[in-house]
Amino acid sequence: MDLNRASLLIPITTDQTIILSFKLSQARIFDSKRRFEEASKKYHEISLTDQDLAHEERSFCLSASMVCAILAKAGPARTRILRDLYRDNRTRELPNFAILSKMFYNQLIRPDELVEFKKTLKTHHLAKLNNSFAILEEEDDDDNSNSNDDEDRRMIVGEDGESCLRKEQVLRDGPETVLDQSIIQHNLLSTSKLYRNISFRALGKYLGLKPFVVESMVRVMIQENQLRAKIDQVLISNVVLSGSNQKDNTSEKSDRKRLIEILPKSIRWDESIHLTKKKKKKQ
């Protein structure tokens, strides 16, 4: 509220020092409130100012802009910010450029690549999130528990010939921190560039999340226009049909044809007949 009131007085002053201090305050407040897109833009704007700023101060603002861009919600807005920062040659001299570059090119980011990046984050960047995705009916949980445990374990034989069960992967109930959420959303988008369709179970193994959590995250990202995809639970159970983040004019008919290409032959035959009937009706 105080920030909004102060913004009404800024046009009155011509003192560049006051204006710069106000912009820096704006950036820090946006950052603390997790409005990372706005914070990144402000920090980057300050780093490009014509005023006489020390090199260290410009580097600090540019580095803060990169951190906020990485933590921002996935989607077209963040893509534009990443593009501007990647094109800024000064970012190549900063330690977080490797992560920024991977995000810009939609490459998967592994947990071990975040070790050094975490050291540059502030406390609120690593704040714990309320696990809103871990909501599942008890009946479904009981039904799936046995099958999930069987799939997550694999029989291996040791040198002594004795077999044992090994737990392969522990799937989580959702992102735990702000950074975690950002990286999972990014990896989800990156996966959508690699697959035309993928089951929630397979996608969950990529992201280290349980299938029902992945389904919830995908649904939210689609609703918020962060991800262009379709959830199909009719022809194939729990499948995400992923597309480009940029808008296109692909018709329902072409989407259906794309779906036919990856279906089993029996279903593909039925769908081909359906399309043929529609063509004859139009004629």
Fold and architecture overview:
- Keywords: Signalosome.
- It comes from Phakopsora pachyrhizi.
- Residues 138-158 are annotated as: Disordered.
- With 283 residues, the protein is mainly alpha-helical.
- The chain folds into two domains: 2-126, no CATH class; 171-282, Orthogonal Bundle (Arc Repressor Mutant, subunit A).
- Helices cover 56% and strands 7% of the residues.
- The chain contains 13 helices and five strands.
- It has helices at residues 2-9, 16-32, 36-47, 55-71, 76-87, 97-104, 115-118, 138-152, 178-194, 200-207, 211-223, 252-261, 265-282; strands at 153-157, 163-167, 197-199, 229-232, 239-242.
- The strands form two sheets. A three-stranded antiparallel sheet has the order 3-5-4. A two-stranded antiparallel sheet has the order 1-2.
- Helix 4 packs antiparallel against helix 5 (76-87).
- The N and C termini lie far apart (63 Å).
- 24% of the residues are buried.
- Residues 134-167, 235-239, 244-252 and 255-268 have low confidence and may be disordered.
Give the topology, please.
Layout: H1 2-9, H2 16-32, H3 36-47, H4 55-71, H5 76-87, H6 97-104, H7 115-118, H8 138-152, E1 153-157, E2 163-167, H9 178-194, E3 197-199, H10 200-207, H11 211-223, E4 229-232, E5 239-242, H12 252-261, H13 265-282
Antiparallel strand pairs: 1-2, 3-5, 4-5
Helix pairs in contact: 2-3, 3-4, 3-5, 4-5, 5-6, 10-11
Biased composition (Acidic residues): 138-150
GO cellular component, one term: COP9 signalosome
Organism: Phakopsora pachyrhizi
